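Our preliminary data section would be incomplete without showing what the modeling component actually yields. Below, a chain of 254 amino acids is followed by its predicted structure, encoded as tokens that our downstream tools consume directly.
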Amino acid sequence: MAYSFKIRYPCTIIPTKSLSLTSLSISYQPLQPKVYKTRILAIASSSSNPETGKIASSTPTKEAQPLTKQSAYNVKFKTMGGCKLGISRYPDFEYNAEGGFGSGSGSGNDDPNGEVVWVSFDVGKLYIPSVTSGTTRFLGLPLPPFLRIDIVPEILEGSIYKETGKVDLAFKAKFWFSIGTIYKAPPLLVTTNLTSEGAEGEIRKGRGKRMDKNGECELVGVARVDPINDILMDTFLSLPTECLALLNASITFE
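Predicted structure:
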């Protein structure tokens, strides 16, 4: 049997999906390294202790100052000639204090600014010559032989700068005025600062001189003198008033 095959028009074309090779697109991105933020603590010149595991820092610190060196002294004090004493508005007395002496102790500190010695004199062993006709002249003439003023120290202490020669000594004393055996006044109390620098009050002033290499100096002090409730002395000296002392002295250390 024979078969025939004919295409009939119009014919319908049924589209079919054609398979096509789908291209696989691969995107490649190189791996970026992870960045870790690390906080670093800097320790200057540090070292680790293997026993404790602690870090010992040797960061430079402020340089330590040397310890102050203290020194102990025996201090000798001598009074000399060429001194002056003055009170109220009277002319100064020429006073020869040669022969006075004393001793004390001192402690000094060494520092970059020089050594300062704090001294204290034993007032029980401190002697200052009395104002008499043999030691004192007024207007060029010796005092009358029956006049006498004894000086009894109560305090002599302060500071001495060995490098510069500056001296500052607190001084307190009683001045006992007498006329023979017939009259003895209550003491005049004098409190002042004997200094190698300058001293000035309302009516009195003076200037000292610093210690030289031999320990010699001029110490000056101005003090107020209050009334002593003695009619003769209060009137004669015009108390209250001021007094002046200019004392040549020698201070040495042992």
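The chain is about 0% helix and 45% strand. The radius of gyration is 50 Å. Preliminary results of this kind motivate Aim 1 of the renewal.
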